[in-house]
Design a protein that fits this description.
By secondary structure, this protein is an alpha+beta fold. About 45% of the residues lie in helices and about 30% in strands. It is built from four helices and four strands. Bound molecules: nickel (II) ion (NI).
């Protein structure tokens, strides 16, 4: 396993901030968090309303085209999107989604796995009137 030095440094800073004195424990906890988050996404069912927030490096080859292609593919679930130029390097794309959660999950995971994408956060709520 190899990790970029910058990522590892940032991770170590977080560990210090949180009072961890073992990097191994930090890595174990981070992996568990990743798995729990995956299971949370996997277990959702029905129609949901949500927001996908994506931070990405816009200079990274093809990443903008890929994100756009994915959004065109899932246009039935996408109600709106907003683009913010965060810094010289980074963009934030906020995508409002509504509909079948399995499609929302697929679109989120497709964006997540793109190179050049630094962070993806999906938050959802029930989209029915009764809840
Ligand atoms: Ni931008």
């Amino acid at each position: 396993m190899s990790l970029p030095k910058k990522l590892l440094n940032e991770f170590d800073e977080v560990l210090i901030d949180r009072g961890y004195n073992s990097r191994s424990k930090g890595i174990r906890d981070a992996l568990k968090d990743y798995i729990v988050r995956y299971q949370w996404m996997k277990d959702m069912g029905g129609d949901r309303l949500g927001i996908v927030a994506v931070i990405y490096e816009h200079h990274y080859p093809e990443v903008m085209e890929d994100i756009t292609d994915i959004q065109h593919k899932y246009r039935d679930q996408i109600n709106a999107s907003m683009h913010l130029h965060l810094s010289e390097k980074n963009c934030l794309e906020v995508i409002i989604v509504k509909g079948d959660v399995s499609a929302i999950r697929n679109l989120t995971e497709k964006i997540m796995s793109l190179k050049g994408v630094e962070n993806v956060k999906l938050t959802t709520t029930s989209s029915t009137k009764n809840n």
